[in-house]
Amino acid sequence: MHQNDALSRADEVSRWQQAAEEAEKLCLEQMELTRQAQQAEREASETVRIQRETIASQQSELAELRRNLDRSTTLIATLEQRLRNLQGVLDRQQERHADRQIAELEAQVAALGARAEQEAAGARSANQELERAAERQVLLERQVMQLRALLERTAWSVNEPTLNPTTEPTVTTGWSRVQLPPFLNGG
Known about the structure:
By secondary structure, the chain is an all-alpha fold. 81% of the residues lie in helices and 0% in strands. The protein has one helix at 2-153. The radius of gyration is 71 Å and the shape is rod-shaped.
């Protein structure tokens, strides 16, 4: 039996050795998995750190962009208000300029109207003068025609010169009285 016992002990040692080898193999595999897990954890930690830094950087940039946006919005609002103010000033200036131009044009129209009235009055006066001159001309033409008719109808007889120099020539007409123009009548 002793031999059986020795065989069974050798089997048992062999089984324990095999179990120890398997346990060692499992332990090595567990250590490798642990190392890989630690490596993965380090890489994940690094990735998380990088992502956190990226997020922090992006948050900082976002905050800066928001500040810029706020400043830009404020600036735009200010510029829009200035533009409205300037537009109001420009509108008022244009209205004043238009009012001034209208006043100037009205003054020019009034001056032209007054000048036209003066010229019309001058033209009326000139027409009256022309009418009076035309009336005088007609009167003078009548008088000239009367004088011509008188001269044509009148028989002139001048006394022959005699030895008496005191005698003046006389004009005799068939008419008893002739109407002479005022300038011939001495008036």
